[in-house]
């Protein structure tokens, strides 16, 4: 296995269809949920990355404990964001305990760093999400909206799923929004006036507040 450089931001060789996991996740509920469904390889020295999906794409997992403990997780996100080697996806445990912290990490991740953020309710849900990401990459490696920087297609399930979770959007409005704003970054930067053209005044206010309340 190719080793990480001192800053811990790759490249790491990931066999096709595998996930390379940070050793700290061995025996966890998250790792157990993936084993038997995809090929999981554990490695030391992957920090700040938790899971590599390919040589250039990775997942940074922010636990409930990470959020409650403060903002130390930000250094990890910044290191990956500043790396020319990696495209990072941030997966965050959004629970009752972390609800009060979620908007802060959402603003920092999506607006300040321009990274993709996906909330999950538990490590079990996170394992399912990672499995889906890997399976989608195997089927069509150039069409995963979170593992590339090109314009995302509105038919892609993960992008739709993310937008549907925004308050006031749902299954009907999500495709309409993605026709005009084909990425999370573009949607998060849209003005109320631009959003109103798609979802009306009330929906525009909800979406805008979702992305900007903690600014």
Overview of this protein structure:
By secondary structure, the protein is α/β, with parallel strands linked by helices. The chain is built from 9 helices and 6 strands, in the order E-H-E-E-E-H-H-E-H-E-H-H-H-H-H. Strands 2-1-3-4-5-6 form a 6-stranded mixed β-sheet, with helices on both faces. Helix 6 packs across helix 7 (170-180). The radius of gyration is 17 Å and the shape is globular. The relative contact order is 0.12.
The general outline is globular
Query: What percent of residues are in strands?
Result: 5-15%
| Mean pLDDT rating | 81
Oligomer class: single chain
- Helical segment tally? 9
**For the CA atoms, what is the radius of gyration?**
17 Å
Biggest sheet strand order reads: 2-1-3-4-5-6
State the low-pLDDT regions, or none: 1-6, 148-155
Class computed from helices, strands and strand pairing: alpha/beta
Helix fraction bin: 40-55%
Number of strands: 6
Order of helix and strand elements from N to C terminus? EHEEEHHEHEHHHHH
Q: What is the CA–CA distance across the termini?
A: 42 Å
Largest sheet: 6 strands, mixed
Keywords, please?
6-stranded mixed beta sheet, alpha/beta, disordered N terminus, 9 helices, 215 residues
Task: Give the gist of this structure.
The chain is of the alpha/beta class and 215 residues long. It is 45% helix and 14% strand. The longest helix has 21 residues.
Question: Topology, pairings included?
Answer:
Elements: E1 18-22, H1 29-34, E2 39-43, E3 51-52, E4 57-62, H2 64-69, H3 73-81, E5 87-93, H4 99-112, E6 116-120, H5 123-139, H6 157-164, H7 170-180, H8 184-188, H9 192-212
Helix pairs in contact: 6-7
